[in-house]
Specification:
By secondary structure, this protein is α/β, with parallel strands linked by helices. The chain has two domains: 255 residues, Rossmann fold, CATH 3.40.50; 187 residues, 3-Layer(aba) Sandwich (Rossmann fold), CATH 3.40.50. The protein contains 16 helices and 18 strands. Helix 9 packs across helix 14. The relative contact order is 0.10. Bound molecules: adenosine-5'-diphosphate. The site of adenosine-5'-diphosphate has 19 residues, from helix 1, strand 13, strand 14 and helix 11. Adenosine-5'-diphosphate binds next to helix 1, strand 13, strand 14 and helix 11.
């Protein structure tokens, strides 16, 4: 099959979160399975752009509200990605350092999508499926079906994968002037509650819709930032497919970021040495249990309550534990995490940054990973933790519910709780500390976790079934 993925992020080109990991891995596995999978994304100004060689493959223009936007499509000459990668450059609009966070993001991503379609209608590669990811590519199914400029693309099937339904790409009606002509009888498809809503539009217009776990799929019908009725209405074409992990990038036996490698049949010495080195670096006693949090500091990740839970846990256990936090996000939450450093300098370290190498070392060295998420469509951190023998402590929601079983339940290996509250987190930390005292049981759980297969193979097959439908 010929597959074209359209996404704002793709690892290792530009990564903000899990979307990048998925778009950097799924096409690779699809290619290995004998399909032709390609990725197109905006040309963000990242290290990858400057470190690699590129070939210009297309140059054209998008006319939007009378303005001409010249665009260039460049192709990466990097064969290590495992698939063909194309980036769209629109000077001044897409060639910026951050992936998101600009006031004109809705307009930037609209022009990105128009450029992709302009190129696609002239390209000799005709995909069987255009697979769009999240709202940044959400207008594509509509424009392919109902845009007069893109009739050549009308018959091509489209799939939307929702990585996070909290963000929907809202625009006011005034922005319609930037759209190329469309069948006006279909204008309603663009709207949800009086606003242009790119995600809702994609849910309505794509031939199939998937999200990144079965539990999150069910949750969207009663909790999806205003789109609940829409998901109820479109449920027949929706499916939850759990994300896989890229086992080449995330393998403790070969991970280039780890000082010491380890295999699943010999976990203990390797994990211990990684922990020892990390604790030396941070000035911690390596005999104490090490808890880590890695991720965006936002309410959805439980970032608003976690600092209070850590504070209380330190008090309860008279600092018989160490904690390392890596992430950035909401300034208020960053402040709350920073305040902990003042009160517990012996047992707490904070890095307000995005640091890929450090994240790998934390997964490999920690005893426990904290994920008190309110919303977690799939969650990749817990899957990396499982692969690196680190016990995940998770709230039962979305993909966390589908991938972690409490060690108190049959076949379990993690620690699960139900409510996003300080009390539930503390209760789970207490259970973790108890477990840490039972070394044999800990090691048995580690072994069990590391033997679970979360590779892409099964999930890639499920995507293929969706394409075939
Ligand atoms: P989301 O996409 O909602 O942010 P996911 O769990 O799906 O959450 O994916 C998060 C990905 O981003 C993981 O690969 C995680 O290791 C990585 N990550 C998040 N924050 C950081 C950070 N500060 N430094 C390094 N990696 C990070």
């Amino acid at each position: 099959m010929n597959i074209l993925h359209v996404s704002a992020e793709c690892f290792p080109v530009a990564k903000v979160g899990g979307l990048a990991d998925v778009v950097g891995a799924l096409p690779k596995y699809q290619t290995l399975m004998g399909h032709e999978a390609k990725v197109v994304m905006p040309m963000h100004k990242t290290n990858f752009l400057f470190k690699n060689e590129w070939e210009v493959v297309h140059k054209s223009q998008v006319i939007s509200d009378g303005q001409i936007h010249i665009f260039t499509i460049i192709k990466a000459l990097n064969h290590e990605l495992g698939f063909e990668l194309f980036c769209v450059d629109v000077h001044g609009l897409l060639d910026r350092e951050k992936v998101y966070g600009y006031d004109d993001d809705p307009f930037r991503y609209l022009i990105f999508q128009l450029a992709v379609l302009e190129w696609l209608k002239k390209w000799e590669f005709i995909p069987d499926v255009v697979h769009v990811h999240d709202h940044h590519a959400g207008l594509i199914p509509f424009l392919m079906k109902h845009g007069y400029d893109f009739v050549r693309l009308k018959q091509i099937k489209t799939i939307l994968t929702i990585h996070n339904a909290q963000y929907q790409g809202w625009m006011s009606k005034d922005n319609l002037k930037y759209f190329p002509a469309w069948d006006e009888w279909k204008t309603g498809m663009l709207f949800w509650r009086d606003q242009i809503n790119s995600l809702a539009c994609a849910v309505k217009c794509a031939d199939r819709v998937s999200t990144v776990s079965p539990t999150y799929m069910k949750q969207l019908s009663f909790e999806s930032n205003g789109l609940e009725d829409l998901f109820l209405q479109e449920f027949h074409k929706c499916k939850g497919i759990i994300n896989g992990i890229d086992e080449e990038v995330w393998d403790p036996a070969t991970d280039k970021h780890l000082p010491v490698h380890f295999q699943k049949n010999k976990i203990q010495p390797g994990k211990k040495q990684n922990k020892q080195l990390l604790c030396e670096h941070f000035g911690f006693d390596a005999e104490l249990p090490l808890f880590v949090f890695i991720g965006r500091m936002v309410d959805d990740k439980g970032g608003d309550i976690l600092p209070f839970a850590i504070e209380q846990a330190f008090r309860l256990h008279q600092s018989k534990m160490n904690v390392i936090v890596l992430g950035s996000g909401n300034p208020e939450i960053e402040k709350a995490f920073a305040a902990l450093a003042e009160h517990h300098p012996q047992h707490y370290r904070l890095s307000i940054s995005y640091n890929e190498p450090l994240s790998h070392r934390l997964y490999a060295s920690a005893d426990f990973l904290l994920m008190p998420s309110r919303v977690e469509p799939c969650g990749l951190n817990q899957l990396y933790a499982l692969r690196y023998g680190t016990i995940p402590i998770v709230r039962r929601t979305g993909g966390l519910n589908d991938t972690v079983v409490d060690f108190g339940d049959a076949g379990g290996f993690g620690i699960c709780f139900n409510q996003s509250t300080v009390e539930d987190i503390i209760h789970s930390i207490n259970r973790a500390l108890d477990l840490f005292g039972r070394k044999r049981e800990m090691n048995a759980l580690r072994k069990k976790m590391m033997n679970i297969n979360h590779g892409w193979h099964e999930s890639a097959k499920e995507y293929l079934e969706l394409y075939q439908q």
